[in-house]
Specification:
Number of helices: 5
CATH topology of the largest domain: Ribosomal Protein L9, domain 2
CATH superfamily of the largest domain: Ribosomal protein L9, C-terminal domain
Number of strands: 9
Shape: elongated
Strand order of the largest sheet: 4-9-8-6
Distance between the termini: 111 Å
Largest sheet: 4 strands, mixed
Number of domains: 2
Radius of gyration: 35 Å
CATH architecture of the largest domain: Roll
CATH class of the largest domain: Alpha Beta
Strand content: 15-25%
């Protein structure tokens, strides 16, 4: 069914957009919540008239969005998170953490207009900030280990334990080889002793 949106819904559309949605979603969520109305021919006419009258207002909104977007130009974030020894995050980093980090930089951005695939591992990601339907800013996000020193120490400890275990295993194998050699020599001596009287 066609719906005219009454407000921005990230992932679906922006205010005054006409979108196609499943009828259940439209009837049970968008319309009762006041987020949209059925796009009937009369509603479309009213929308077109309103958009004509609001053209200058919409241009001002777009200009304001572009101004906000310009403030984020060149901004990149580094977010520290607790990480397990395998590189997996405890939890994840998403739009809320991006909004918090932007706030620390003095950039007040509503987390509802930020979209980002949840980061579950350390690495580089991109957060999209949707200021306007025609104005979107990409913010590079680097997720790093908060407990890097602990992880490094744990990795070094694991490596030391592994090296010690390998050394013990090598020593044990060497000792076993010596025992086998000694047993073989003993067996040869015994055989020689048994054979010697027969030759005499």
């Amino acid at each position: 069914m066609e719906i005219i949106l009454k407000e921005d819904i990230i992932g679906l559309g922006f205010k005054n957009d006409i979108v196609n949605v499943k009828s259940g979603y439209g009837r049970n969520y968008l319309i009762p919540q006041g987020k949209g109305v059925i796009a009937s021919p009369s509603a479309k006419k009213i929308l077109a008239e309103n958009l004509k009258q609001q053209a200058h207002k919409l241009a001002a909104l777009k200009a304001a969005a572009e101004e906000k977007a310009a403030q984020l130009a060149g901004v990149s974030l580094e977010i520290a998170a607790k990480v397990s020894a395998t590189g997996q995050l405890y939890g994840s980093v998403g739009a809320a953490q991006v909004a918090d980090e932007l706030a620390k930089l003095g950039k007040d951005v509503d987390r509802k207009i930020i979209t980002m695939k949840d980061a579950k591992k350390i690495g580089d990601y991109v957060a999209l900030v949707h200021f306007h339907k025609e104005v979107t800013v990409e913010v590079p996000v680097k997720v790093v280990a908060e407990n890097a020193e602990e992880l490094k120490a744990a990795a070094e400890a694991d490596a030391a334990i592994k090296a010690a275990a390998e050394a013990r295993a090598a020593k044990a194998a060497e000792a076993t080889e010596e025992e086998v050699d000694a047993d073989v020599e003993e067996a040869i001596d015994e055989t020689a002793e048994v054979e010697a009287p027969a030759e005499a």
